[in-house]
Amino acid sequence: MSATAVTPAKESPRPAERTWADFRLIPRIETFPRVVAFAQTVVGKLVLLAAFGLGLRFFYSFAGVVQLLLPLALITFMPEYRRFVLALAPLCLLLVQPDNVPLVVGLKLGVVAAGIVLFWCARRWPQSWFGRRPIVFLLSGFSLLIVLACAAAPRTLAYRIMWDLVGVTATYVWFIGYALMDRSAKPRIDTSLELASFRPLWGSTTTPFPKGAAYLRRIEAQDEQQLAVVQLKGLKLLAWAILLGLLQTSWTGFFHGYLRIPTSAEALALSVHGTPAPWHVRWESQILFFFEVTLAVAITGHKFIACCRLAGFNALRNTYRPLSSKTIAEFFNRFYYYFKELLVDFFFYPTFLRYWKGNKRLRIVFATFAAVVFGNSFFHLTRDWDFIQKYGLWRALVTYQVLFFYSAVLAAALSISQLRKRARSNEFLRGHVLPILGVLSFYCLLGIFIDEDRLYPLAVHLRYLAGLFFIRF
Amino acid sequence: MDDRAQIRAFVQALLIGKGDDQPFKDGESLLLGGRLQSIDAVEIVVFLEDKFGIDFAEIGFDEEQLDSIDAICALVQTTASCD
Q: How far away is chain B from the Cα of A271, in angstroms, using its nearest Cα?
């Protein structure tokens, strides 16, 4: 069979007709040959950059837009210097921030330098103890740093330096982790993208968007036409982010302002203080919260990925039609793709490939729990290092009981979802509506255990959940 | 059935199981392109372990090795023949 073999396409008795499923709120401009050709001209590039800059203004200050747009303009007109610009721009931006604290800037540069050294060592000595398990070394080292910071005497210089170092490392650790994971990826000469991906120009949360340098190499535009297509997709995604942003503003104003429905945190607080909102209002709060979280995650991800695409990388969206998911695993994949990828890359695969090889089901369950319970908890515990600084390690761990419970329930549900082989049905109700409603209901109720402020113990959240079903304890 | 055909049939069955009956080329990116997910990569790993005796814990794992039919065949070729 040849390398270009294609499975036979279904024969179509008549030309494809346009249906409602083909309708796009934002047209697929990257598929219009004239638009793609125009985007490759000097004027076209200027128009594209101007439109993108205007769009960015919806989210960022004028200075913020300029800081982003200048390097993106350089990349657009001189794509051959893309990697150089991407490696240098974040470092330049780091140095020119007006609110810079010299100690923190020094620590940031130090952590970046340490990341480069670790990456170099892992490549130089691949068979060494470190070279074979660099991620274990990195995450253990970071954990040890937190323990040492906890041991430092408060209000001393050492205490301040240690906790600042923990804070800076927390923002870089997963980026360095991806670089270490990509240590054997090709090519082995040009490593500028590793540096660029330590803190990407287009912005990121603690979760690397979109993964590491090896991934960026695979999705990088290779010629002018590809660049134009990717940039048009970026512009389109930014337009999506703006539309969702407008929806978010109207949503908040209408439901929480005009209708005065409390947020889920407010509804929970009312219950804790003995003045619970009416039953139907608590349900409304919970349902609204689910959609609000989904909207917020989608907007943030779209913003970053849109800029990443404008830089010439055809990255997948972070959030892609999560409300159409028919299984719990599918929603998890569609909701926050790059966080899911982080859990999979750092925790799921390493566990899956090493343990319980004789039993496929047990392998999947064990690896899922390793990723979702251990990985998810470790990620959030280290991301919110200030809780540890404030309460101490043990008390901080106690405040995470709600997260541990959330992770355990999610892991169990994901395991079942992955192992369950359900017959596909094309029936509208049983094949589409009911599975989707089931998935959304599960995540909506699980949202009760999302508690970023960690104000209440697990029992309070469980009581609140039970109250939604008229159960009191 | 040769190795490539077996691999292709397996991947095609995975796609069809997800409701994706669109054609795909041997060089097409399936994981990075978003048509297959991590859980599908797990299925491919188990298939390659069972069928070709590949031990990923030993050789190291990279999703790019499973990204397309060509990539999987190249991986299999290092341990067995892939026509």
A: 40
Q: pLDDT tens across A97-145, in order?
A: 777 788 888 999 999 999 999 999 998 888 888 988 899 999 999 999 9
Question: What chain A residue is nearest to B70 in terms of C-alpha separation?
Answer: A3
Which chain A positions have a beta carbon within 8 Å of B45's beta carbon?
Answer: 352-353
A348 and B38: CB-CB below 8 Å? yes
| Distance separating alpha carbons of residues A263 and A294, to the nearest angstrom | 15
CA of residue B74 relative to chain centroid, distance: 10
ipTM score above 0.90? no
Q: Which domains does chain B possess?
A: 3-77 (1.10.1200.10)
Tell me if B38 and A344 make a contact (CB, 8 A cut-off): yes
Site of tokens 């995470």: A400
Residue to substitute from A1, A318, A336, A372, interface B, most B β-carbons within 10 A = A1
What's the pTM value of the predicted model, to 2 decimals? Answer: 0.89
Q: List the one residue out of A229, A308, A307, A320 whose CA is nearest residue A58.
A: A307
Is the CB of residue A135 less than 8 Å from the CB of residue A180? yes
Closest CA of chain B from A202, distance in Å: 20
Domain map (residue ranges) of chain A: 29-210, 227-468
Going by C-alpha positions, the residue among B75, B30, B24, B14 that lies closest to residue B48 is B75
Residue whose tokens read 């790019």: B64
